[in-house]
Amino acid sequence: MKQETSTKEVGKKGEEIALNFLQKKGYELLERNYRAGRAEIDLIMKDKQTVVAVEVKTRYNALYEPERAVSKNQQKTLAMGIEVFLKNNKLVLPARFDIVTIHYQQNKMEIAHFEDAFYPGY
Question: Exposure winner among 15, 22, 44, 93, fewest CB in 10 A?
Fold first, then answer.
């Protein structure tokens, strides 16, 4: 149970860091932790006239790149979630999928932003 709690805490901290990072780049927050069916989108942002579904991956001393943790199945779920968001909010804008990674290693934090990181196929 304690591991779950610390994993959730790490995730929330990572989302906050990612949100601040993206807002400094001029992105506007539309929704946080948006749920639609099985989909949960960490951050939904607006970059100019594009709606951006952002998956945040936070890791400590990871053995592989955190951005590789977004599976094809998760990509499809995120795509379905953003479709619901656009429809429910009556938005007719293009959507894109970004990944923001926060990687802590040897007491250093590295943040990376992968714009248009994937295009989920159906």
Answer: 93
